[in-house]
Amino acid sequence: MESMRRTIKSLLTTNRVWKSFFRHGRVSNDLNRALVITSNVVLHLHPVKVRKDSVRFGYTLGLGGISCLLFIILVFTGVLLAFYYVPSAALAYQSIKDIEMVVSYGRILRNMHRWAAHGMVITVLLHMCRVFYTNSYSKPREFNWVVGVGLLLLTLGLSFTGYLLPWDQLAFWAITVGTSMASYAPVIGEKIRYFLLGGNIVGQGALIRFYVLHCFVLPSVMVLAMALHFWRIRKDGGISGPELATANESESISAFPERSYGLMEVVEGTEITAERIPENTVFTWTHLIPKELLATIVVLTALNLITVFFNAPLEEMANATVTPNPAKAPWYFLGLQELVHYSAFFGGVLLPALIVVGLVVLPYTDVRGTDPGVWFSPKRKTQNAIFSILVLLMFALIIVGTFFRGQNWKMQWPW
Ligand code: HEM
Q: Cα–Cα distance between 72 and 78 in angstroms, integer?
């Protein structure tokens, strides 16, 4: 029996067709463990070897990878939704109703797209916090942090532009509020709003612009920006970790990313010698890929459960003459809307601008690069405290805006 199994396996894996697909033999030695990564276009995003620390789940929490996975789910479900959605002010709402009521599994598809989108905003924000608290943006990763800021803005932009597409009251008024916040900018504010809406009010012009941005422009830019982000992770010496001295060198690894462990690759026929396998690295194939598969299964299961039990909201069809009271922006802008209530210029223009500029310059202010790769380093107490206070403040404002604001933006209890 065993010999028959072996013969079949050998027949299957030694023929020309199999070999044209897979350039490596059984993954039972280091050379093949390396080749399985380098000879696969998707797996090749990873280096052959990664630092032990970086594959610990407790270090990255898998948040960057999960954000990427959610984006892939969004593209997949988004393409299917686009087969049925009609970007016309007269027909959009009905097409969403049809997706929910007529298309097979349409409601599931819509729920999944909606919850994955919220999930991605949350995981990207948490990923940014992880990078901050482990000081992973210090030299040589400053530029990749800046790329990350771009990714954050793109994520918010994708979510915001998608918000309008169902063309219901919630969508219509959230976008009316959101875009009017942009108009508070001096001189160019009104122009930005006009450009976004393709007119003075949210109408057909706005719908088609948001549709094109949401389905074509922003996802394409996102794919390019992600490619740059992943490429930089490789060039910056792999995922960060506590500073180490190499066996033969006294210099810290992160000062010489191009020589760092994570970047080593094995070309077919190259012998891997003991000196070329530093002790603090492990093979991606056996140590990282199974964890990524597990995370994928957990995320898909959680998303499916949420999708089955919670429906994406759909209110009455958009109506410019019936203003809901209060009209609220999407949740991630509610902190700013709360501040707009006190000062339109501060909440709508100054603070968002300060946040973006502050995030971009942040890594360049850290001249000492203290304790990269260490969670909540005691040497970074002040930075961590300031960042935590700002994050908590924004979070508190979002909670107030979501649950404690009622008619005419007056304070009320959520129950
Ligand atoms: C679409 C959004 C994003 C995706 C898909 C993404 C993906 C990833 C992945 C897969 C990693 C490898 C380590 C990990 O999983 O944590 C990573 C690392 C990194 N990301 Fe992101 N990221 C995104 C947004 C951001 C944002 C918003 C920032 C900061 C503003 C950022 C800054 C960084 C930095 C500096 C690293 C290197 C960190 C290290 O080496 O430990 N990323 N990103």
A: 10
Read out DSSP for 173-231? HHHHHHHHHHTTSTTTHHHHHHHHHTSSSSSHHHHHHHHHIIIIIHHHHHHHHHHHHHH
Within 10 A of 185 (CB to CB), how many other CB atoms are there? 18
| Residue predicted with more confidence, 32 or 275 | 32
Looking at ligand 1, which atom is closest to the CA of residue 222?
Answer: 1
Q: Judge whether 237 and 253 are in contact, CB under 8 Å.
A: yes
What string of H, E and C letters represents the secondary structure of 107-168?
Answer: HHHHHHHHHHHHHHHHHHHHHHHHHHHCCCCCCCCHHHHHHHHHHHHHHHHHHHHHHHCCCE
User: Domain residue spans in the chain?
Assistant: 58-244+305-409
CB-based contact 335:348 (threshold 8 Å)? no
Q: Does residue 170 have a pLDDT over 70?
A: yes
**Which residues on neighbouring strands pair with residue 168, listed in sequence order?**
317
Burial category of 248 from C-beta neighbours within 10 Å (exposed 0-12, middle 13-18, buried 19 and up): exposed
Minimum-distance ligand 1 atom for the alpha carbon of 241: 41
Domain 58-244+305-409: give its CATH code: 1.20.810.10
Query: Pocket residues for ligand 1 (CB within 6 Å)?
Result: 60, 63-65, 67-68, 124, 127-128, 131, 136-137, 141, 144-145, 148-149, 151-152, 155, 226, 229, 233, 239-240
Ligand 1 centroid, distance to 192 Cα (angstroms)? 29
Distance CA 357, CA 130 (A): 20
Does residue 56 contact residue 113 with C-beta atoms inside 8 Å?
no
Neighbours of 283 (CB within 10 A): 19
Q: Dump pLDDT digits (tens) for 128-141.
A: 999 999 999 998 99
Mean per-residue pLDDT for 400-409?
A: 92
User: What is the CA(68)–ligand 1 centre distance, in A?
Assistant: 10
